[in-house]
Amino acid sequence: MTATNQYPLPFIHRPTHAAADFIAAPSNDAARAWLDRTTEWPDHRLALWGDPGVGKTHLLHLWAARHNALWLAGPALHDPPDISAAPAITLDDADAVPADTALLHLLNTARDLRLPILLAARTPPARWSVRLPDLASRLRAITAVPIDPPEDSLLHALLTRLLADRQIGTDQAVLDWLLLRLPRSAAALREAADRLDRASLAAGGKINRKIAVSVVADMGGATQNPSPADPSLL
Q1: What's the average model confidence in pLDDT over 153-166?
Q2: For residue 129, which of 95, 106, 157, 156 has the smallest C-alpha distance?
Q3: 63-80 in b/e burial notation, b at 16+ Cβ within 10 A?
């Protein structure tokens, strides 16, 4: 009988956008409050903005489900969409719409039909690079609500959940060490979780300090000095 080597295969992790999976925190309080007051949006428009990974798309999904909204993706919006049958509109990556005319038509039509429209982008609409003066004027008038960078409690909860979703085991000391040294952004934690997932599969066990050090090094090194109180992880 010939022995066959078996190698663990990583599963593709697809984030969910269920309400139970959203982590509420002070950094997203304002955005969540505005989404609960849709009827109060000036001109029926609202824009959420912030760094990648802070929860903009997740909040759009929650609001879209609540209002049965038509989902639009900015980079795919080359032509004016038909929104005549939609009760509400969401536009993700709204600052990446390739055609000014398509975005202007969307905003004008939604206003004429009195449809609420929720946009998400990395910067507030007033800063988007557009050429049409009419569009620039409409963008400056949109109420823009920031989602702030995540605080320590949110980063800890997020990394804990990302590892749990991937069924990655680790000690609290290793988790704390990672949080001290990884970049302080949700996007960086997601990248780290993916790297840790692959590393744990290759090692055939839970994350230890050697794997953690390797992942941090691969992502550009530590962002803070090692803690003297934790010499076991140096």
Answers
A1: 90
A2: 95
A3: bbeebebbebebeebeee
Residue 193's pLDDT is what? 92
Walk across the sheet containing 143-146 and list its strands.
70-73, 89-92, 117-121, 45-49, 143-146
CA-derived radius of gyration, the chain? 21
pLDDT of residue 199: 87
Listed in sequence order, the residues at least 6 apart from 178 whose beta carbon sits closer than 8 Å to its beta carbon are 159, 192, 212, 215, 216
pLDDT band at 20 (very low <50, low <70, confident <90, very high): low
CB 180 within 8 A of CB 228: no
DSSP line for 179-206: HHHS-SSHHHHHHHHHHHHHHHHHHTS-
Q: Measured between alpha carbons, how far is 198 from 228 in angstroms, rounded to an integer? A: 29
Among the listed residues 50, 17, 70, the one whose alpha carbon sits nearest the alpha carbon of residue 120: 50
Return the bridge partners of 118, or none.
46, 90
DSSP at 214:
H
Burial label for 208, CB within 10 Å (0-12, 13-18, 19+), is: middle
End-to-end Cα, the chain, rounded Å: 46
- Where are any strands of DSSP class E within 25-162? 45-49, 70-73, 89-92, 117-121, 143-146
Give the C-alpha separation, 234 to 230, whole Å: 7
- The answer to pTM > 0.90 is no
